């Protein structure tokens, strides 16, 4: 069931928020041992919130489509009185005395918080194989990673534990688990959603967004969260659109760019074919397909890595002397960031505007770009490398190479289900648009979703 | 400290800062440095020398 389906059922009095919440808690109770998707379940308060929202509906108070909908937050969104650990020992005793803006807005819109979703330690990785709290496991195959860093969010949504789970995305951390777990994931434009009260990783790269079972569900979540926040001066004054795509969407007049370079190099055949089929589908729905050459993504990824290494080391250095408390993968990245000179960081930032402008010129000709989200489906937990077309690559760098550069640009991007590989693991289609074009981006994604049923598939074990 | 004009001896840099780091730290840095070195000529070509886009005030309106 999607959020919009649940919202309709609530208003038809076919179900109550308390019943929806109790069912999510039942699924969590039954499945969390297998998937490890939640670090902290706030069941009692969730049931209380749900009952209160039921009471409001009974009195004619309707907060909108998220009224009474049970959701989860990645464990880096600060919530008053609820432990927020970033799945790290560094924050193990941190209980915020304030709410992040995202939760303030979602709560005001009627969401019920089920608890905190597990993640890659400190959001600094793509496997969610956590040395302190155990690995998150992919409901499609518990021997596989769910992606990360928002791995618990992806697993929770695909397993039916929550109608939506919030993620954060610094180099692909919403889109990777969305692709690996067969959910929709939205990374909005930088500045569209407030970062206030979210534990940071990369100050100029972090983005907050939802993982959901449908495009329209993410649209209503973005609607609730978007907008200027005086407590986060990087948020934009740009007007907030009406993001919910209409019932029937035409792609006539929409130009979809397909990169000739980089994005289809060293991609598993199954992933490339699945994306090509979605592009052909878009054409059959009236879209004009445009071959484009995009700026140098490998160079952009280099810029992204330098910026992230330096910014993350800055974040982590508040914990200097506690390096032994982080996982080996995090410690390597932390030390790399400490060694890079400030000149490299500044030069990387200087190149950022050049790449942004070069990418904006691509969008003079297209509305969205269509690419694979990841070059493969999810791999086994513990595999540090992946081999694609005979080339062995670091799993983290390979998995994020189509995404991390987009965080440097700050452009909005999505991942949506588009098929399965030969081992039955989900694959993702990434769509990228110009800044603040989420409305068009979601319309294109919804048109493709309406014409397919990949998003309706659930893990075989469920 | 420098093994040649382009490549930093990262182990020496780390040692100078009192850090004892492994190949897992330095090998990716060497690769990253090489990749970024190839980009450096474009910094002057593509960016305005007097501009640094981390200013106290944003130049563009949001």
Separate helix tally of chain A: 14
Helicity level of chain A: 25-40%
C-alpha Rg of chain A (nearest Å): 20 Å
**End-to-end C-alpha gap of chain B:** 45 Å
Indicate the proportion of strand residues of chain A: 15-25%
Task: Identify the strand order in the major beta sheet of chain A.
Answer: 1-3-2-6-8-7-14-15-11-9-10
Most extensive interface, chain pair and sizes: A-B, 27 and 27 residues
Rg of chain B over CA atoms, rounded to whole Å, is 17 Å
Output the number of helix runs of chain B. Answer: 2
Largest sheet of chain B: none
Order of helices and strands of chain B: HH
Main β-sheet of chain A, in a few words?
11 strands, mixed
Which oligomeric state applies?
A: heterodimer
Mean pLDDT over all positions of chain A: 97
Question: In terms of topology, how is this protein built?
Answer:
The complex is a heterodimer of chains A (462) and B (62).
Chain A lengths: L2 H9 L5 H19 L2 E4 L1 H16 L11 E5 L26 H8 L3 E6 L11 E2 L3 E2 L15 H8 L5 E6 L5 H7 L2 E4 L19 E6 L2 H11 L29 E5 L9 H16 L3 E5 L4 H20 L11 H12 L2 H21 L5 E5 L12 E4 L2 E4 H6 L3 H6 L3 E8 L5 E8 L4 H13 L12
Parallel strand pairs in A: 2-3, 2-6, 9-10, 9-11
Antiparallel strand pairs in A: 1-3, 4-5, 6-8, 7-8, 7-14, 11-15, 12-13, 14-15
Helix pairs in contact in A: 2-3, 5-6, 9-10, 9-11
Chain B lengths: L9 H7 L6 H24 L16
């Amino acid at each position: 069931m999607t959020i919009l389906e649940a919202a309709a059922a609530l208003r038809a009095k076919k179900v109550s928020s308390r019943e929806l919440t109790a069912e999510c808690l039942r699924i969590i109770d039954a499945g969390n041992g297998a998937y490890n998707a939640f670090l902290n379940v706030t069941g009692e308060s969730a049931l209380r919130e749900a009952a209160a929202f039921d009471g409001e509906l009974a009195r004619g108070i309707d907060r909108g489509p998220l009224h009474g909908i049970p959701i989860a937050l990645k464990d880096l969104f600060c919530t008053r009185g609820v432990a927020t650990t970033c799945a790290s020992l560094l924050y193990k005793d941190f209980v915020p005395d304030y709410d992040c803006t995202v939760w303030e807005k979602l709560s005001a819109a009627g969401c019920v918080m089920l608890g905190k979703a597990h993640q890659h330690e400190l959001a600094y990785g793509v496997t969610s194989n956590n040395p302190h709290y155990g690995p998150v496991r992919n409901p499609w195959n518990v021997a596989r990673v769910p992606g990360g860093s928002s791995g618990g969010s992806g697993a929770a949504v695909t397993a039916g534990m929550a109608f939506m789970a919030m993620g954060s995305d610094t180099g692909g951390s919403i889109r990777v688990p969305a692709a690996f777990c067969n959910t929709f994931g939205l990374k909005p434009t930088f500045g569209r959603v407030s970062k206030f009260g979210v534990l940071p990783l990369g100050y100029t790269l972090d983005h907050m967004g939802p993982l959901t079972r449908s495009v329209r569900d993410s649209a209503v979540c973005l609607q609730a969260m978007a907008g200027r926040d005086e407590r986060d001066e990087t948020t934009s004054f740009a007007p907030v659109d009406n993001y919910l795509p209409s019932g029937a969407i035409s792609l006539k007049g929409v130009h979809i760019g397909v990169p000739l370079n980089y994005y289809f190099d060293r991609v598993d055949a199954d992933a490339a074919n699945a994306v090509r089929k979605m592009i052909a589908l878009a054409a059959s729905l009236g879209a004009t397909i445009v071959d484009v050459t995009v700026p140098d993504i490998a160079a952009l990824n280099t810029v992204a890595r330098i910026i992230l290494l330096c910014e993350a080391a800055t974040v982590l250095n508040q914990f200097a002397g506690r390096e032994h408390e982080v996982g080996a993968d995090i410690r390597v990245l932390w030390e790399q960031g400490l060694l890079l000179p400030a000149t490299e960081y500044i030069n990387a930032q200087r190149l950022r505007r050049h790449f942004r402008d070069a990418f904006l010129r691509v969008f003079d000709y297209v509305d969205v770009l269509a690419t694979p989200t990841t070059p493969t489906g999810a791999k086994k937990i513990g595999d540090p490398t992946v081999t694609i077309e005979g080339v062995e690559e670091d799993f983290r760098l390979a998995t994020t190479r189509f995404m991390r550069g987009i965080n440097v640009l700050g452009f909005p991007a999505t991942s949506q289900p588009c098929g399965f590989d030969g081992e039955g693991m989900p694959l993702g289609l990434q769509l990228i648009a110009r800044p603040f074009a989420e409305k068009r981006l979601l319309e294109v994604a919804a048109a493709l979703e309406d014409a397919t049923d990949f998003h309706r598939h659930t893990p075989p074990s469920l | 400290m420098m093994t040649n004009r382009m490549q930093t001896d990262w182990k020496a840099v780390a040692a100078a800062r009192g850090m004892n780091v492994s190949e897992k730290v330095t090998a990716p840095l060497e690769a990253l440095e090489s990749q970024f070195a190839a980009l450096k000529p474009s910094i002057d070509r593509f960016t305005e020398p007097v501009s640094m886009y981390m200013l106290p005030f944003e130049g563009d309106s949001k």
